[in-house]
Structures are given as structure tokens and as C-alpha cells.
Specification:
With about 160 residues, the protein is α+β, with helices and mostly antiparallel strands. The chain has a four-stranded mixed β-sheet with strand order 1-2-4-3. It is globular.
Length: about 160
């Protein structure tokens, strides 16, 4: 159901990861036109994630907030990808899901900062304490990647 409290636009939505269409990197909104972007488990599907992050920064107003949820592995210092891996089964085993193009490491946060954001990790308990994770479709053990748009976004 559409929120009556906060108007929003859905730019991309998929009912199942097996039917994932190409994800647009160019958002058809003017510069600095939105206050909040929620990008929930999308970046790991995009080949040029740096461009996608810059595009999110472009449409956000100064001090706007982006919640950029994506799987990442704390033990990895750098992201891992293998473009030569084309088998769905092998991609699923290697990258966690057949349509993922990378597994992020701790370098994820530097990539986000390069696009013009300040990054903060917040626990579900700290940020969404009063929300039932099952009812609201969030994973309680996954930290929220909260980002604030700073200055001019990188181009």
C-alpha cells in the first residue's frame, strides 16, 4: 500500500530475483529533488555500482538521507567479483545469489563515501526498536547503512 504520510515514487521493483531486469543507473529525477532514497538490496546487482551511487547522490538534496542496504562481509577487506562466472549455480555459491555481481567487503563504505556521503552503521535495535522486523520486512540482524548526502555529489 502507498503511504499517505510520505509521498514516494518506486523507480524499480522486482517480485523475484530470477526475473530481475536490467537495472537503470540513470534516475529520471532532477538534481537535488528528493529527501530520502531507500535502496534495499539493489547495489549488489549493478555492475557499475559507483555510477549508481553517484546518481543517488545527484537526486538527493543536501543533507538528504539514503538507506543503502546491501549484503556485505565484515571479514573481507575488499569486494569480490568474478565476471567470468556465468553459471547460475556457481554464481549462487560464489556470490550468495545467482544474480549478484559482487560480494562487498569493508571497502563498501569507502565506495559510498566517494559518491559524496557520510556513512553510519546503525543496529536495528537502536534505530527501529519499536518496529516488528517480520511485519515491516527488515532483517533485524542486518545493520542499517544510513548515509547523509554531503556537499556536491561526485560526477
Amino acid at each position: 500500500p502507498r503511504s499517505t504520510l510520505f509521498p514516494y515514487t518506486t523507480l524499480f521493483r522486482s517480485g523475484g530475483h530470477n526475473l530481475l531486469p536490467p537495472i537503470p543507473i540513470q534516475i529520471s529525477l532532477p538534481d537535488a529533488s528528493v529527501d530520502l532514497v531507500i535502496c534495499n538490496h539493489v547495489l549488489e546487482h549493478i555492475s557499475d555500482d559507483r555510477r549508481a551511487l553517484r546518481e543517488i547522490a545527484r537526486v538527493l538534496r543536501l543533507c538528504g538521507i539514503a538507506i543503502l542496504q546491501t549484503p556485505w562481509s565484515p571479514p573481507l577487506s575488499n569486494f569480490f567479483t568474478d565476471p567470468a562466472t556465468t553459471s547460475a549455480t556457481f554464481r549462487s555459491r560464489l556470490l550468495g545469489q545467482e544474480d549478484h555481481v559482487r560480494v562487498y567487503g569493508r571497502d563498501l563504505f569507502a565506495r559510498i563515501e566517494e559518491a559524496g556521503f557520510a556513512v553510519q552503521l546503525r543496529t536495528h535495535q537502536t534505530t527501529l526498536r519499536d518496529l516488528d522486523p517480520d511485519r515491516h520486512g527488515v532483517y533485524a540482524r542486518e545493520d542499517l547503512i544510513m548515509c547523509e548526502r554531503l556537499g556536491h555529489p561526485a560526477r
